[in-house]
Each structure stands twice: as structure tokens, then as C-alpha cells.
Amino acid sequence: MEDIKYIAFDVHQVTTVISVLNAAGREVKTAILPTQPQPLIAFLEGLRGTLYLTFEEGTYAAWLYDLLADRVKKLIVCDPRRNALLKEGNKTDANDANKLAELLRLGSLQAVYHGSRSMRPLQELAHGYEALRDDTTRVMNRIKALYRGRGIDCAGRGVYTKGQRASWLERLPAGATRLRAELLHTELDQVRTLRRKARVALLAQSRQHTVAARLRQIPGMGPLRVALVMAHLQTPHRFRSRKQLWAYIGLGLVQRGSSEYRMKEGRAVRRPHALQLRGLNPNHRPELKELFKSAALTALRRPGPFKNYYDARVAQGVDPAILRVTVARKLAALLLHLWKKGGHYRVEGSQQA
Q1: Which of 47, 111, 123, 333 has a CA-to-CA distance to 188 between 20 and 30 Å?
Q2: What average pLDDT does range 262-290 have in this prediction?
């Protein structure tokens, strides 16, 4: 009988609690080690048999995956949102590790993709750009909140521009309030500068992947969107079909049903309309959903096949909101096909976003 070990790491900043189960589900070894490379590697090297390892997605997941993936038979970085068993009973680090190992043994873990190391530089730059983009929005909201809190109407984007800054500051009371606004404006200038630098680096890195040029041919998918989509998806081959991609990015349709069958002449027959649509998949990557929805809006503003389709269906009475989601799904399916199968998107008169 093959000697199989199911290993689970409960990873924390300072320590990692480990539980090891055998094929029968009996805990054969436990350990508490520093969250450092050498102790973790040495522990795995000291185990005999076929090793299966898991730990939850988190801050240390990418580092541990690169460190340990080649040292075990199979490594699963699992989605903590799907591990309902960990919420039952007493919660301790040792119990969490033991339950994770049991879920691994039963094959009940939902894996988080960590497979394409060649895309890691693009991922790092994308995360950096998105963080600076979010910081820019956060500072802009704080600036407007400051003016609105003093009864000053600041609609539009004029309050952010350097040319109008002095006139806006004069509307505030001299002293601490005005100084606070000056500091926020300075912070906005600095974050915008860093954001532009991050964008340049991200686009330069994306151009090292030859597929990026093909994907930019898709209406609505400009260079920045393509770079971010590639960074988040990493590879198209993780999705067997477009439906899997739609579910992943939050554009998959969710169906709900109960009592689907009835007996008719001794046979089970499905009831009509047993399954009903209940909106889009709520468990998704929100940043990807926003990328494809914004790409759809861009494509619908430009002359081309997607705008023609949208206009024709609106004229037939279809809800525009549903059509925008449909166009986003079409763009995602087209991107998956071109990325996986190759080829080029060519439509006479189409424009890039």
C-alpha cells in the first residue's frame, strides 16, 4: 500500500502550525515551526512517502507556493472562504491545521490558482498600479469631503487641478483647515506621479508577452486593460470553457431550482421552468468584473459590431443593462478564444479603446 501523507500548514506571521495525516486519516505528526524557509523545507524533507500539502490563500501563499511546490507530489493553495469545516467546534491553530489536512485527504478543498511563475512580474506591477489607483481615488474623496464639510460646492474635477488650486484653497478658513487641504493636494500630486510611473512599468512589462498585441485588437480592450486582465488571469488554459471564465469574473448566470422532476408514466420527467435564473455569480473577482464591464461600455461608445448589436437589441425592447452584461460576456469569450487558440480580431472600421 502506498505511503501517503496529507500535510496542512496553518500559516501565521511568526509561526506555522503543521498537522500530518496518514491515508487512514490518523494524525501521525504535528509541529510548530518558524515561518521561515529552512525549517519548513527541512520538515518536508524529513517525511517519507508521497506528500500532499495544503495551506490557505493569504499574505504568504505566493512565497510558500514558489518555495515548496517542487518538494511535494501535489500542493493546493485553498480558498479560505470555502472551508466551512474550520468554523465548527473550538478554533485553535492546531485544530485548523488538522481540519485542513482532513479536507485535503477527502479531496474537499477549492484550489486557488498559483501556477504561472512567468507572469509573476506582471502580477506584481499590476498589484502596485491598482494600489496606487485606489489611493488616488481615496485622496480625491477626502479632498471633496473636506470642502463639502464646509458647505462648499465642489462638483466636477476642477477642485483637483493645479491651475485652480489656489482659488479653491482661498474658500477655506485660514489656518488648520487650509493647511489640511494643502497637505491633501500635495499627497494627490505625489500619488498621481507614482501612479503614472507604475502604469509605464506595467505596460512595458505587458509588451514582453506577444499575446498582448493580439488582445489589444479586441474593441474596448486597450493596453492597460489587457495588462491587468493578463496579470489577474495569468493563463487561459485554467479555464476549460467560456462559462468557467464567466463564473470566475462574475458574469456567470446563477440558476436556482427545487423539485425539478415529476413521475409520468413511470418515468422521471423534468418539470418545465424548474430552474430559474437568479442573477450573476456573487462569488467572483470584482476587479476583473469591473474591467470587462468598463470595456463593454467603451466598445458600445465606438462604431463597430458590438454597438450595432446593442442598438438593434435595444430597438427590439431588450433591457440595456442586460445587454451591457451580454456584451461584457462576449468580450470575455473573445479574449479567451484569442488568448488560447491564437489568431487575430479583424473587423472593418473597428477602433481600439
Answers
A1: 123
A2: 77
